[in-house]
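A further point concerns the way the authors explain their paired sequence and structure data. Each protein is reduced to its one-letter sequence and a matching series of backbone shape codes. An entry of this sort, consisting of the sequence and the corresponding backbone structure tokens, reads as follows:
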Amino acid sequence: MNTTEAVAPITNVEEAISYIHSVFWKGSIPGLGRTQKLLSLMGNPHNQLKYVHIAGTNGKGSTAAMTASILQKAGYRVGLYTSPYIYRFNERMQVNGEPISDEELVEITSWVRPFAQSMEESPTEFELVSCIAFEYFKRNGCDIVVLEVGMGGALDSTNVIPAPEVAVITNIGLDHTEVLGNTVEEIAYTKSGIFKTGCNAVVYRGSVSVESVFEQICIEKDIPLTKANFAGLQLVSHGLEGQTFHCGLRKNIFLPLLGDHQLHNASVVLSVADALIARGWKISEKNIYDGIATVSWPGRFDIMCKDPLFIIDGGHNPQCIEALVRNIQDYLFDKKLIVLTGVLADKDYADMYKPVMPFVEEFVCITPPNPRKLDADLLAKYLTEAGAKASPCASIPEGVQVAKEKAGKDGAVLCFGSLYSIGSIRDALEEAGN
């Protein structure tokens, strides 16, 4: 691109985010070349940091959040890079739990833009965001960065980093098969591209065939491999405030995140902590317990208010829906359940709704604020034809109010379907005084 063109300066966060999201940057094109080129122009900030690198189909975000929380409790300055965001773009890059400020996002985006625009092959949006994040973490003097892969592993733009302290693979399922492979074994191979000689590897337990993929790669690269201790997991108690569990020799660990799947993610995190300790990081048992007990990961079976009980869940692929059904059975079995939901038109929403239908009294349908939206009346029509009771609402605030009224004092509202609706739903709840 011609760098001599006059470009208006970025003056506020709306302009910075608009530039990042602009159509020019759209698309997901596997390959590291564009990211490496842009980072080279920037002075390679990513090479000045240490990492825990996390890939997987499900559980990456909560695993990253728990890991970052433990490291922060240990006194380290911790960067956290995740996607997608729930409420604000700034959440995607944080230092010690604080999202990047609007001012710093504007300043770094303005600084990176001329480098990006000088490139013959333009970076994608995710590549641009990753490079902004690396610069942000470097400028903020992070001791370690917990870095979540965007998609896949080997060719994801985050994989430009040198060997991390620990490379982690969470639960694997069939997702993005057109890019990553048609079997879980092929996907495991792609994701294990984040394993580099010099790191430790920690993996979520899977089938024998999936684990053999990890074992073979770790043997070839001389990488110590730890499989999470699922055999040692034992649930002690659980309620809407959280759950207490044992894992091996560690007893009575409190986790505020709900669901059996989060216990398995926590087991992975405990193995990550042990790997970091083995590499010389100073992390005490108290740091581990306190880090898990105080973790925050919004939008995942997240209780927004209790009168009536109002829960938001961002899960949308088949494995997430399986986990959601288990949570309904574990936590909402005695409640009249109203589901507030909207969905994107290009999603396979049949697979999303059918497993949940037996537990739901009524669906209240809304239209997500996204160009790919499915209109609320069309979703209500689909659900009705599928045998459920469903009604559309003209706006998200109306949907929130109607769902609460239908649930009544002793019922529960569960919101799931599209991440794009969550911010507007939270805003509507706050405006209603919840």
Summary: Residues 32 and 211 are 26 Å apart (CA to CA). Residues 13-293 form a domain with the UDP-N-acetylmuramoyl-L-alanine:D-glutamate ligase fold (CATH 3.40.1190.10). The chain has two domains: 13-293, 302-431. The first strand starts at residue 51 and ends at 55.
